[in-house]
Design brief:
Elements (H helix, E strand, L loop, with lengths): L1 H16 L3 H6 L2 H11 L8 E2 L1 H4 L19 H11 L6 E5 L5 H6 L5 E6 L2 H6 L4 H5 L12 E4 L14 E6 L5 H14 L1 E9 L3 E3 L2 E2 L1 H10 L8 E4 L5 E3 L31
Parallel strand pairs: 1-9, 2-3, 2-5, 3-4, 5-6
Antiparallel strand pairs: 6-10, 7-8, 9-10
Helix pairs in contact: 3-10, 9-10
Length: about 270
């Protein structure tokens, strides 16, 4: 008992010196997991699909990536490229450009690609590093066919785009509030009957669910659409798939059923 009181006293001293640490505690995955389980006691995880389950054919096209912080896994990019290759997918929209790896790879398959992100000025105004702001779109802008929109999804009226998209990738601010905001707006204005929607960072890794994002997705959608949500194996992605499909229950420690062979080459990149 003494050790517990000692730890509490030490923790209190740290919080007095750094009150911002309280936010880390409140925003921890375990805290969100507790909130999630209280609201959705009958849901532990989304059912699983494989990349091949969703795709007519996964194209054997090299995946371009920087292998730097904040990027997608190779399998995440492979998923998007596979979905982009479906016969019923002809257009792509994403929220959250970052360096542009996702839309750049999809742009190898589809001509109609649009990406939306805060402007560099807005990024810096949030107190973020100017070097971080400068990296946005450095790859995607190499493809002049890709349309870049600078806007804040919190205030942007998506109906002004005047159209829907076949494949949508939500990879912006991953806070609960913004995942919910982006999801609601996408489904209200950009989704049609056969649209497929993918969320990045539904999981921290292919086996560890990110409950803040998961709750944002579920709370944004009517309950009748929850049955069309799936976790894609070997990725950090969740997907809304409007078609009938068989799936399997999520198992955190499932035995691997797939192994990937990856060949890597590198070349100089200039902004």
């Amino acid at each position: 008992m003494k050790d517990k009181f000692t730890k509490l006293a030490e923790a209190a001293k740290i919080l007095v010196k750094q009150p911002s640490l309280i936010n880390l505690m409140l925003n921890s995955n375990e805290n969100f997991k507790t909130k999630f389980q209280a609201k959705y006691p009958n849901i532990s995880a989304l059912n699983q699909l494989t990349i091949n389950d969703l795709c007519d054919e996964v194209p054997q096209i090299p995946v371009t990536t920087f292998f730097l912080d904040g990027g997608s896994m190779l399998t995440d990019l492979r998923l998007l490229m596979g979905l982009a290759s479906r016969k019923d997918v002809n257009s792509y929209f994403e929220i959250g450009t970052w360096r542009g790896e996702s839309v750049f790879n999809v742009g190898k398959i589809l001509e109609d690609c649009t990406t939306m992100n805060l402007s560099k000025k807005d990024i810096v105004s949030l107190g973020l590093n100017a070097g971080y702001a400068e990296q946005h779109g450095i790859l995607s802008r190499k493809n002049p066919a890709i349309k870049h929109i600078e806007a804040n999804t919190k205030t942007f009226d998506f109906s002004k785009l005047g159209r829907t998209f076949d494949l949508i990738f939500i990879d912006g601010d991953h806070s609960y509030e913004m995942v919910k905001n982006d999801t609601q707006k996408v489904f209200a204005s950009l989704v049609q009957e056969k649209s497929i929607v993918v969320w990045h960072d539904y999981a921290y890794s292919p086996r560890k669910i990110r409950y803040e994002v998961f709750m944002g997705i579920l709370d944004a959608l009517p309950q009748n659409l929850h049955k069309k949500l799936y976790h894609i194996k070997n990725t950090m992605c969740a997907v809304y798939f409007p078609f009938e499909i068989s799936s399997e229950k999520f198992a955190e420690f499932f035995l691997p059923e797939t192994v990937f062979d990856v060949e890597i080459s590198e070349k100089e990149f200039r902004n």
